[in-house]
Automatic annotation (TrEMBL):
InterPro entries: SusD-like_N, SusD_RagB_dom, TPR-like_helical_dom_sf. Pfam families: SusD-like_3, SusD_RagB. It is found in: Cell outer membrane. It comes from the Bacteria. It comes from Chitinophaga parva. Residues 349-636 form the RagB/SusD domain. This is RagB/SusD family nutrient uptake outer membrane protein. Gene3D superfamilies: 1.25.40.390. The lineage of its organism: Bacteria, Pseudomonadati, Bacteroidota, Chitinophagia, Chitinophagales.
Length: 636
């Protein structure tokens, strides 16, 4: 497609062909070819692109711990000839182990990527960057900065999974002794300071924006690096890594403590980094997507659907036109065929292309607010106890629910992000080939005779809820697929504003600046400000006025705003809340039932198995044998 990604694809194939499962293989196997790899600017640029290769591999969401283990989505695990690698999805059912870890980013394996190999390539790039005689000084400085960012990001990825990790700042020489290769895990604060230091070195020489998207889209920029630094410092200040009593006695073999005591000043450092990143992003024109740029053939668009599309296109707008997208892993995210229900007869006839496996459990649907902007269990004007009672679509809700269609009360009077994010039985689905807002598709999901309902095991959504947000409204599934592609964000402005609000609240509790950053995101969704919403509609009106109350609000706001974007899994881990979220069975509707009264009966679709030890990934037994200086993560 674009030249940058063409090179990445080629280098990716080369790397896959030479992958190695040995622990921390830091001795370069390609010493004899380095002179060739850096003999000219063009060859060195190809090597730089190969340093990006592991980044592009992360674009496969089945490889993402945050996407597959967050409980936002469930996936049928018993499919014969499963088209996706289900390792990540199966981890919440207790399949993780030390002999062959799932999503193993230490050794590579279990659908994971060997991050140490990626780090080694970055070190090789830095060690040889002076070789090309035809490489100009300005370009050289940028390439060094990009490589240092990548090296930092790969360490950061490992840190989020494993906690205290070794630091590989330089490749070991070929003649390195066995003792030199047996590196040790470093304390959490040492790791965080090292990663932040690399980012600080990179940021000054990175470009503020990409001036030639056709050739360079995906390369790192100053705003992206600053946003990742902000996220790193928020992560380091969070309960998993800051004063975690579960790991208070965790030591290496020399007796060194690997986890720190609580340090409140880390939140101030995080807040400062968030504010600096926001200022930099806004300086180059990045901002919330507050308008909907309709395709030319969109007609009769009601305000309610337009509001949904304002939010939805903050994710699905093409990257080079998306003013909210700070950084993405790749130019294209593939997976819309797993998200779109069958809505036409031709779609049913061509259903091999449209399995629609990605299923949101009822708990995800219930995470979203009411139309008053407060949780459904808190809204004093919303009938929480009778939310599963049947109700027919009416004229007042015709832009959300098919008029006359029998569904449940839980689908009425919800915020616009609910309707933009979740596809449900009876729900309106704008797009998929019908761009006349007066006559859109709707989802018919009850029983096997319905269009979107269960067919064969391979073509069934097991909960009755689809991640509508992950489908571009211009993508059409009818007589086969006609995709309109988009990029899956690593960071967008809404997420950065909420990170800043979180850090501010942890520093000094509720404040006007904290509320303002939350309300930017809420106002885009058509909701009242957080203080007004709770004062008017919540059974707990004082909740936003306390640090604990506002913390809970911010956490839910992030989970709603960033739902299905591969963020919630990281957040729930760093908050130490994933164990609570996975403490109950994940449920869906009785999808094989034709009648509404029988369909809307919750049933278990997955029984999570998650304990304290699951917050950190295990290191494989083989790696511990090879490197006697390593210690295993607690309880594994």
């Amino acid at each position: 497609m674009k030249s940058f990604y063409t090179v990445l694809c080629i280098t990716g194939l080369l790397l896959l062909g030479s992958s190695c499962q040995k622990y921390l293989d830091v001795v370069p196997p390609d010493v004899g070819t380095l002179d060739y790899a850096f003999r000219s600017r063009n060859e060195a640029e190809n090597y730089l692109f190969s340093c990006y290769n592991a980044i592009q591999g992360l674009n496969d969401m089945s490889r993402s711990p945050a996407f597959t283990t967050s409980s936002e989505l469930v996936y049928p695990l018993n499919l014969p000839g499963n088209p996706l690698n289900i390792t990540g999805f199966s981890l919440i059912t207790g399949t993780q182990n030390t002999n062959s870890p799932g999503l193993n980013y230490w050794d590579g394996g279990g659908n994971g990527i060997n991050m140490w190999q990626a780090i080694r390539k970055c070190n090789t790039m830095l060690e040889n960057i002076d070789e090309p005689a035809d490489l100009g000084a300005a370009e050289k400085a940028r390439w060094i900065a990009e490589t240092k960012f990548l090296k930092a990001y790969y360490h950061y990825y490992l840190f989020r999974l494993y906690g205290p990790i070794p630091i590989v700042d330089k490749n070991l020489p070929v003649e390195a002794t066995p003792d030199q290769v047996r590196v040790k895990r470093r304390p959490v604060d040492t790791v965080v300071n090292y990663i932040a230091g690399l980012l600080d070195q990179a940021i000054p020489d990175l470009p503020p924006s990409i001036e030639n998207p056709a050739k360079e889209l995906g390369r790192i920029t100053k705003p992206a690096a600053m946003a990742i630094k902000a996220e790193l410092l928020v992560t380091a200040a969070s309960p998993l890594f800051n004063g975690n009593t579960d790991y208070a006695s965790f030591r290496d073999k020399d007796g060194q403590l690997l986890f720190p005591a609580y340090d409140a000043t880390k939140w101030q450092k995080a807040a400062d980094a968030c504010k600096a990143a926001i200022d930099q992003c806004e300086a180059v024109g990045l901002h919330l997507n507050n308008t909907f740029a309709a395709a030319p053939n969109v007609t009769n668009l009601p305000d309610q659907i337009r509001q949904e599309l304002v939010f939805q296109t903050a994710l699905t707008q093409r990257w080079d036109l998306n003013t909210e997208l700070i950084w993405s892993l790749n130019a294209i995210w593939h997976g819309q065929e797993y998200c779109i229900p069958r809505m036409t007869q031709l779609a049913n006839q061509n259903d091999n292309d449209n399995p629609a496996y990605f299923a949101a459990p009822i708990s995800t649907a219930e995470l979203f607010y009411t139309n008053n902007g407060v949780p459904i269990e808190e809204d004093k004007n919303w009938d929480y106890n009778d939310r599963y009672q049947l109700q027919d679509g009416d004229a007042a809700n015709a832009n959300y629910i098919k008029q006359g269609y029998t569904t449940i009360k839980a689908h009425f009077n919800r915020e616009s992000r609910f309707y933009a994010s979740i596809g449900f039985d009876g729900g309106i689905w704008f797009g998929n080939g019908i761009l006349d807002g007066s006559n859109p598709h709707y989802v018919s999901a009850r029983g096997q005779s319905s269009l979107a309902g269960p067919k064969t095991l391979q073509k069934t959504n097991i909960t009755g809820y689809w991640p509508k947000k992950l489908a571009n409204y211009l993508t059409v599934y009818d007589n086969g697929f006609n995709w309109t592609d988009f990029s899956m964000p690593v960071m967008r402005m809404a997420g950065l504003y909420l990170l800043y609000a979180e850090a501010l609240n942890e520093v000094s509790g509720p404040s006007a600046e904290c509320y303002a950053n939350i309300d930017k995101v809420r106002n885009r969704a058509g909701l009242p400000g957080v203080v007004d919403a709770w004062a008017q509609y919540s059974r707990n009106p004082g909740k936003p006025s306390t640090k604990d109350g506002l913390r809970a609000i911010i956490h839910q706001e992030r989970r709603i705003e960033l739902c299905f974007e591969g963020q919630a899994g990281w957040d729930l881990r760093r908050w130490k809340e994933l164990q609570l979220v996975l403490s109950a069975p994940l449920k869906g509707w009785s999808i094989y039932e034709d009648q509404a009264i029988n369909y809307y009966r919750p049933k278990n679709v997955a029984i999570p198995v998650f304990g304290t030890r699951d917050y950190l990934w295990p290191i494989s037994t083989n790696s511990l044998v090879v490197n006697s200086n390593l210690v295993q993560n607690p309880a594994w």
